[in-house]
Predict the structure of Toll/interleukin-1 receptor domain-containing protein.
Amino acid sequence: MAKLFFSYSHADEALRNKLEAHLSMLRRQGLIESWHDRRITVGSELDASISRQLEVADVILLLVSSDFLASEYCYSKEMMRALERHDSSEARVIPVILRPCDWHSAPFGKLLAAPRDGKAITMWPNEDEALTDVAVKVREAVKELGARQVPGGVPQVPSAPKGGAAFATASPLAAPERLRSSNLRVKKEFSELDQDQFLHDAFEYTARFFEGSLGELQERNADIKTRYQRIDARRFVAHVYRNGEKLTECSISLASLGRRDSIAFSHGASASVNGINEMLNVEHDSQSLYLKPLGMSSFGQSRDEKLSHQGAAEYLWALLMERLQR
């Protein structure tokens, strides 16, 4: 069983919890035993506990974000020691890019990062897909640890020194490490305020995303002109023209069709409620909030998606672009 160590900033604890859930199959199959600083017991010395686990880890995950890079402890103590053990082939270091940040020039920038292409997890349309990709990379690394075994699958052990035993006897004063499960996540509660704020933040993110994407679309295509209009705090419209002729347009708004707001998409810039072509609602599981499409534009085929702010913006942008890409 490989020992896995999480090096991360506490600002990213929610993403660490999600990643740990995606690694659960490796744990159930007896392939990994994971550790992070939330497993330090009351009364234990923090630095000593972290250092001890870092020294015995087979796989070290650097959960990279701006907060990770800004943390003196994560950067100077955990990351630098992890790279020393990686360079001496004592452990495998895997940078996991959680959020966009300037990480390529960091000391670990030479390593192949996860998820695929080093694209930050929060920038994927579907975070679960990104986290699954990380889990696959971890599984591959754990399999490669089999190279440390002799033929026949028996792990190598240190040779006994002359006149001595193969293993040093533990000090009688050393307290045994506390054994416990890695399944310690508890269900999180999300208030109506949490859900409303998540929705409004998603709407504002989508508005900025559309404005920037329209500008880039126009710059890359000489015959294309675009127009972005912010109507009010709850609605914006987008138009795309080719040689002066309108090709496509849409309206995106915060719509109140029931007790809660939703993000509504219409292919018409002045569409009424009856003209809505897709809606995104806020839902949650036991650990996080996400946006879920009703699937109106795809006959229900998208209803199982759990979208981040980035994912929601990409999803709605694809609806606008589909008329340009037929």
DSSP finds eight helices and twelve strands in the chain. The domain at 2-150 is CATH 3.40.50.10140 (Rossmann fold). The first strand starts at residue 2 and ends at 7.
